[in-house]
Amino acid sequence: MDKRDPFHDVLLVIALWMVFFLSGLFAVHLMPPDEPKYAYAAERMVRTGEFITPYFNCRPRFDKPPLIYWLIALSYRIFGVSDWAARIPSVAASLGVMFTIFSFSRREYGTKEALSGAAVFAGTIHAWVMGRAVAPEMVLVFFETLSIYFLYYGIEHESKRRITAGYLLMGAAFLTKGPVGVIIPLGTISLHLLFTKRFNALIRLMYLPGILLFCIVALPWYLIMATIHGNKYLEEFFLYHNIYRFTGRARQHPFGFYYYIPVLLGSLYIWLPFTPHILKSTLQKIREEKAARLFAVWIVFVLLFFTVSANKLHNYILIAYPPAAILSGAALVRRIPEPGLLAPGLIIAFAVEVAATLSIPLLIKDHYPFMFIGGITTATITAFTLRNVTTPHRVFSLLITKALVLLLVTIFYMAEYEQKIRPAETFPVLNPTREIYFYKDESEDLVFYAGRCIRTIKERNEIDDLLSRERKLLLLIREKDLGDLKGYRIEERVPYVDIRGKKRFILGIGKAEGGASLHRQASTPERPLTDR
Questions:
Q1: What count of other Cβ atoms lies within 10 Å of the Cβ of residue 281?
Q2: At what angle do helices 111-122 and 321-334 cross, to 10 degrees?
Q3: pTM of the model
C-alpha cells in the first residue's frame, strides 16, 4: 500500500505545471489568425454585457461555442484585459488535465506511475504549446478526459452518480467545441465496452438522467443562437464547421492521411527513444489489464477518427496525449528499460541534435547564441541519458531537464522574434483617439490591441473619401500593396510583420500631393465600424 503523503504529490504535480505551463506566459503577444479572435470576442462580451453571440471585428463569429469565450471573460474580470489573461483558461485546464492523468494512473498503477504520467504529459511539446494558447483545445481536452474518467469508473463500479458526472462534463465539452466533445468520450467508452464484449454495460452507459442533464447543460445556448440567427447559424456551425469539414465538402486543411505522423514524432520527441520499451510494456498490459485496454482504445480511436477526417489540424489529436502519458509513465517506472531497446533511439537522437545545432545558421535566418547553447545542452543530456540507461530515476530526471531546456529555447526565441517583428513603437500608434484601417487584408491581432473594430478598405478611392473628412489616417498595408499609395504623403511608417511572416507597415498618410483627391469622392460616405 502506498504510504506517500498525498499533499506532497499534489505539490509535485503543481510544481511541474508551473515550470512547463506558466513559464513564458508573458513572452509572446497573441498570434493571428485565431488567438486574437477568441481574445477580442471575450473582451467585447465583458465590455458590452452581451454574452450570447460572440463577435469579432463587428461580425458574428459562429465558428465555436461560447464556453471558451466565457472563461476568457471570467479571466478578464479577475485579472483585467490582457493577452496573458486570455491564456489563463488554457493554462488552468492543463493543470486539470495533469491532475486527471495523475488520478487515473494512481488508481490503476500507483503514485510513482501517476507522477511519471503527469510528467510525461508536461514534457510533451505539443501539450505545453497548446497549454498556453488562446484556444478551446486544452479546455476541451480537460472536459473530455475527465468525462472518460467518470464514465469508466461509473461503469466499473456501477455508480450512477459517476455516469451522471460524465454526461455533465460531456455537456461542458459540447459547449466548448461542439459534437466532438461528445463523440470522443462516448465513442471511447463504447468501443472499449464492445472490445471487451461487455454488452450489458453499454445499456448502463445510456443512463437517461445523465442524458437529460447533458441536454439541460449543453443545448439551451444552441437553441437561443438558432432563435436569434436562424438557419444561418445552424448551417454555418453544424454543417460547415463540423459535417462538411469532416467529410471534405468544405476543404480548409486538406492534409494527407500521413499528416499526424510528423505531428506525433515532433510532439513526443523527448520520449521517442523509449517507444520500443513503452510499446512492449503496453502490449503486455493490454493482455492483463482492463484499464490498459481502455487507454489503447482511446489512443487508436482518436488517431483513426481524425485521420479519416478530410480536414486535419495538429490540435485535433491533443486528446490522445493523456492516455499515452498514462501508459508511458507506467512503463517508465514499473520496468527497467532494456539497454538494447533504448540505445539505438538515444544514439539517433544525439546525432539529430548535434546535426541540428550545427545547421542552425543554415536553417534559421534569425538565430541567437542561446539557440546554440540549447542545442549543445540537449545533446549533452542525451549523451548522459545513454550512459545511465540502467538507472530509471536518473533517466527520467534527465529527460524532464531536456524538455525544460527545449521549452526555454522556444520561449527565448519567440520573445526575440516578437521584438523583431513588432517593435516597441507598434502599439502606441493604436491609441483609441486615432482611427485605423486595414487595406485589402486584415491582421486579426490589431483588432484586439486596438480594442475596436477595424474597417477593411478594398479600393484606393475609399482612401480619398476618408481623407476628404480626416486630415490623416492610419493604414495597415501589406508590403506588396505599397505601390497603391503612390502620390500620398507618408507621415508615419512603423514596420509590422505578423507571426506568419507577412511583411506589413502601419502608415500615417495624408492627402495626395497638391491636396487634391486622385479619385472621385464617394457620394455616400461609409460610417466607420463600431460595436460600442
A1: 20
A2: 130
A3: 0.90
